[in-house]
Design brief:
heterodimer; A: 114 residues; mainly beta; 7-stranded mixed β-sheet; 11 strands; 0% helix; globular; B: 114 residues
């Protein structure tokens, strides 16, 4: 079955540590996205990538970094510079970057930093 | 500035009844797309319905339909014959024209009561 996988489902880290969230898709999609979801708020865009080896900052990129070395993979690193990293993180992909394309989402990773 | 607004944080409906969720948006574009996504307690984001702005006909998917008022920039979701499985957060989403970056509303939590 085609889809998007995110691992792990729950992640716990100590403050000051970097942590990397995994996102893999087998939909052969060119575009991939990372969103952050906080209670009472909609999803906010962290980073996005149109093609391999290229990515751009979204609306809340500070304290995060990404890479896109393979078409199917778009890992997100939450660095110690992110002031409030505890949140639910969603990865998405779409077949293209035209606004007609829906985005497909992974199951998400709940990150808790203490 | 808020681009997508959902003014109903939470709503309840009795099973088998009809409920309408509201969404307004702001754009200067003429051709665009609008989406409704559902996020059940599993937190998996699922596409419910999509509307193309240049189409006058409102989109319909089984029990889900939209009331699209382009001039008013309104995009409401109507759920007919509500079922317990419709209990979820519902997000209105508007993709920006460049790179298909989505703006999401803050969501409406829908509770379907037996």
């Amino acid at each position: 079955d085609g889809g998007i996988t995110q691992s792990p489902k729950y992640l716990f880290r100590k403050e000051g540590q970097n942590v990397t969230l995994s996102c893999e898709q087998n939909l052969n999609h060119d575009a991939m996205y990372w969103y952050r979801q906080d209670p009472g708020q909609g999803l906010r865009l962290i980073y996005y990538s149109q093609i391999v080896n290229d990515f751009q900052k979204g609306d809340i990129a500070e304290g995060y970094s990404v890479s896109r070395e393979k078409k199917e993979s778009f890992p997100l690193t939450v660095t110690s510079a992110q002031k409030n990293p505890t949140a639910f993180y969603l990865c998405a992909s779409s077949a293209g970057t035209a606004s007609s394309y829906e985005q497909y989402f992974g199951p998400g990773t709940r990150l808790t930093v203490t | 500035a808020q681009t997508v607004t959902q003014s109903q944080p939470e709503m309840s409906v009795q099973e088998a009844e009809t409920v309408t969720l509201s969404c307004t948006y702001d754009t200067s574009e003429n051709n665009y797309y609008l989406f409704w996504y559902k996020q059940p307690p599993s937190r998996q984001m699922i596409l419910v319905i999509r509307q193309e702005a240049y189409k006058q006909q409102n989109a319909t998917e089984n029990r889900f339909s939209v009331n699209f008022q382009k001039a008013a920039k309104s995009f409401s979701l109507k759920i007919s014959d509500s079922q317990l499985g419709d209990t979820a957060m519902y997000f209105c989403a508007f993709p920006r024209s460049n790179f298909n970056k989505f703006y999401f509303g803050s969501g409406t939590k829908l509770n379907v009561k037996p």
